[in-house]
Amino acid sequence: MGGLPAGRVLVVGGGIGGLAAAIALHRTGWDVTVHERAAVHEDAVAAISLAANGLRALDALGVGEAVRGAARPQYTGGTRTPDGRWLSRMDGAALERALGDPVTGIHRSALHRLLRAALPADRLVHGKEVTFEELHARDRTGGLDADLVVAADGLHSRIRTALFPGHPGTAYSGSTALRAVTAEPVDPGTDFALTWGPGSEFGHIRLADGRAEWHAVLNAPAGLRHADPLAVLRRRFASWHRPVPQLLAATRPEDVLHHDVHELAVPLPSFVAGRTALLGDAAHAMTPHLGQGACQALEDAVVLAAELAAGPDLPAALARYDSARRPRAQAVSRAARQAGRMGQQLTHPLALAARNTALRLAPSKATVRAVLRHADWTPPRLPG
Fold first, then answer.
1. Beta strand 200-206 with 148-151: parallel, antiparallel or unpaired?
2. Is 317 helix (H, G, I), strand (E, B) or coil?
3. DSSP code of 381?
4. Domains, the chain, ranges and CATH?
5. Are 254 and 180 in contact (CB under 8 A)?
6. Cα–Cα distance measured from residue 135 to residue 246, given in angstroms and rounded to the nearest whole number
7. Cβ 213 vs Cβ 47: under 8 Å
8. In this structure, what are the phi and psi dihedrals at residue 243, rounded to the nearest 5 degrees?
9. H or E, element range at 15
10. Mind listing the pLDDT tens digit of every residue in the chain (384 residues)?
């Protein structure tokens, strides 16, 4: 089968997924332009964990080693109760033996910087919002200078809304998330950890510069905000085990980000419409309970470029992209929702006791298998 002649592609959205798609398409010969409406990504001050599938996708993009050099592998940790008792432990070395990489933590700003560096500087345009109405008008008049549009415009994608007007869009998950990176180096004792209380979760990851990123996910009404969210968290978690209060004490109030957690209300019927491919949160926004959102976006980017390179024409390539990515990404999304319901969102004392007992009795290999279920993914090979 002959390859599809590379043309011009407009990527709408310059987050992790959009940049990854641009790199993959640029490497395979496409003339790429990325339009990002924000001057600076707000969440770039936070951090992210990448499982092996995300790192393998970055390897396919040619930036995997650079990312590993700026990141910190997570070998020690697990899941605990608020009084500090361990429910399960994660063996990062076992994951590394099975997958080649443990879970890895990195500043989002460092990841963004490395992705941007893999593109020619003039390919990324900040402060430029592109709407579907503009794309449609330019297409109708012959002014759309692109053979392909990649919609990577995030959770509240306007392009998705326009392409699928009957889709209900996003829905509030019932959880709200607060997070920050400590202002100074700290020693949390483990590389990463999750602690589950009734309707609440607190987690951390150690970063390469000695600081730590923490997150708190809470059951809460949508839109609830506090004048001083850090003070609220310090009171709420004051009695939790070390290092939870210590991580909050090492944080500046102005560094705390607060976002309600939304996901797609129902799965999309397709990740493709015409010559537009949806990618990342625009295609499959999911809850963060498996830490797979960015990894799935990276997978999308590599598969899209590989299918386009395989040809023979744009409709066939996009149909294969949809066939390859939609079942997997939507399955991971369902699993993330279920993980939240059985983890952070549980509140009933009997349900909490049953879950905790099951986790304590489960063999350590079961925890590794749970990670392998989503992280053991092999990327297609990109030409060029």
1. unpaired
2. helix
3. P
4. 8-375 (3.50.50.60)
5. no
6. 49
7. yes
8. -105, 25
9. none
10. 456 777 899 999 999 999 999 999 999 999 999 999 887 665 567 899 999 999 999 999 999 999 999 999 999 999 999 999 999 998 889 889 999 999 999 999 999 999 999 999 999 988 877 776 766 656 555 566 789 999 999 999 999 999 999 999 999 999 999 999 999 999 999 999 999 999 999 999 999 999 999 999 999 999 999 999 999 999 999 999 999 999 999 999 999 999 999 999 999 999 999 999 999 999 999 999 999 999 999 999 999 999 999 989 999 999 999 999 999 999 999 999 999 999 999 999 999 999 999 999 988 777 778 888 899 999 999 987
pTM of the model: 0.94
C-beta of residue 59 within 8 angstroms of C-beta of residue 379: yes
Query: How many residues appear in the chain?
Result: 384
Residue 352, classified by CB atoms within 10 Å of its CB into exposed (0-12), middle (13-18) or buried (19+), is middle
Q: Which two tokens stand for residue 6?
A: 């590379």
9 vs 304: CA distance, rounded Å: 12
Q: Three-state DSSP class for 186?
A: coil
Q: State residue 151 phi and psi, 5-degree precision.
A: -90, 100
**Rounded CA separation 248/238 (Å):** 9
